[in-house]
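Re: folding output
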Amino acid sequence: MTKRVVITGATSGLGKATALAQAGAGARLVICSENSAALEATLSEMGGDSDRLCGLVFDVTDPDMVESLAKREGRIINLTGRGENGPVKDAALQRKQILGADSYPVSSQRGK
């Protein structure tokens, strides 16, 4: 069985653009957002194919939710604009382990 691509922040901005591109390419997706109405609208815009698309109301700042989803799906692409502040190399080791080697929290270099 093909794993699903999990995209947080999938109802606006870069997250939505990534989700739409992946859906257009035929990927199996779990799209995540804190906003259930925006999540439903985005799923509808993608065609609502329940065999390939799944929506999940999700809070990327909740470590238990992140860990549970990462264990179940394997990889999370975090495009929420939230996460560790600063360079990825300084992110907490636990956060790196939860999100895996291929996806890290969005980092910000504000003020540097």
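--- second protein (sequence, then structure) ---
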Amino acid sequence: MYHLSVCLLHFQRLLGQILSAVHQCHSRRVSHRDLKPANLLVDQKKYTLKVADSGFSIPHKKQNARLREKP
């Protein structure tokens, strides 16, 4: 049971770091657009995560044109 709870804690920590990285991108009005396991770099000793390969990233416009359109 101890091993399972430790794995769960590591998973929660890594998931929190992924969500934080996405939040940082979005707060700077940027979409990563290629978020996948191959683009997540994990330091297995420290359980830290970095998001890589932002080659497909695009900046958001100030306002989304579709939000301004009325049906």
